Amino acid sequence: MKKLLALGCCAWLALTGFAAESFVGQLTPEERRAAGLEQLTPEQQRALDALAARFATEGARATEARVREETKVEVAKVREAVKTQVEAEVKQREAAQIGLADPKKESRGIESRIIGPFKGWNGRTLFKLENGQQWVQTDGQVYVVSSQPGPDVEIVPSALGGWKLWIQPAGRWIRVKRIN
C-alpha cells in the first residue's frame, strides 16, 4: 500500500508539471555526453522528454496494476486466516458444550430427581440424579433441611453463565457444574 501511495505521488508530480525539469535537463553533462544527447536538436530533446514521461507513466500503471494484484492476494490470505480462526473458535465453544443442554433450544432445562435422601448442601455437595447425571455445587453456600426423600430438581442455564440447580417445590437454588 505504501508503494502504491509513493508511486501515485510520483506520477502526480510528473503529470502536473511539478517535476524539477525535463528528463534531458535532469541529466549531468557527463551523462548527456555519454548518451550523445548534446547532438540532439531542441525538437528531438522535447520528443525524448515526452517518451521518458510516457515510459514513466506506463511504468507507473504497470506497477500500480502489480501492486493491486499483490494487495488482492494479501487480502484473500488475511480473510482466509480470519475465517480459519473463527471456525476454530466456534469448534472450541461447541466442544465446551458437549453433554450439556443445547443453549439454542427453548427448553426449561433438565428435569430429574435427586437419588436418596436430601439434607441440603454444605459447600461441596454432589447431586446424583435419577437420569444418571451428576452435578457438584460450585459455591460455598450452606443450606440445611431435615432429611427428606429426593426432591424433584430442575437444572437451568444461568443468565451469567454456568448452571443453577433448583430444588422443587422449595424454590431454592444453588450454582452447579456437571461432572459426568
Task: Chart the SSEs and their pairings.
Blueprint: H1 2-16, H2 23-26, H3 29-35, H4 42-96, E1 110-113, E2 118-121, E3 126-128, E4 134-137, E5 143-148, E6 152-157, E7 163-167, E8 172-178
Antiparallel strand pairs: 1-6, 2-5, 3-4, 4-8, 6-7, 7-8
If you had to describe this structure to a student in words, what would you say it looks like?
With 180 residues, the protein is of the alpha+beta class. The protein has 2 domains: 2-96, no CATH class; 110-178. It contains 4 helices and 8 strands, in the order ααααββββββββ. It has helices at 2-16, 23-26, 29-35, 42-96, and strands at residues 110-113, 118-121, 126-128, 134-137, 143-148, 152-157, 163-167, 172-178. Strands 1-6-7-8-4-3 form a 6-stranded antiparallel β-sheet, with no helix packed on it. It has a two-stranded antiparallel ribbon with strand order 2-5. Helix 1 runs antiparallel to helix 4. The radius of gyration is 39 Å and the shape is rod-shaped. The two termini are 54 Å apart. The relative contact order is 0.09.
Brief summary:
With 180 residues, the protein is of the alpha+beta class. It has helices at residues 2-16, 23-26, 29-35, 42-96; strands spanning 110-113, 118-121, 126-128, 134-137, 143-148, 152-157, 163-167, 172-178. The chain folds into 2 domains: 2-96, no CATH class; 110-178.
Largest sheet: 6 strands, antiparallel
What is the multimeric organization of the chains shown? single chain
Strand order of the largest sheet: 1-6-7-8-4-3
Low-confidence parts lasting 5 or more residues at pLDDT below 50? 16-20
Task: Tell me the Rg in angstroms.
Answer: 39 Å
Tell me roughly what share of residues is in helical segments: 40-55%
Please give the number of β-strands.
Answer: 8
Number of helices: 4
Number of domains: 2
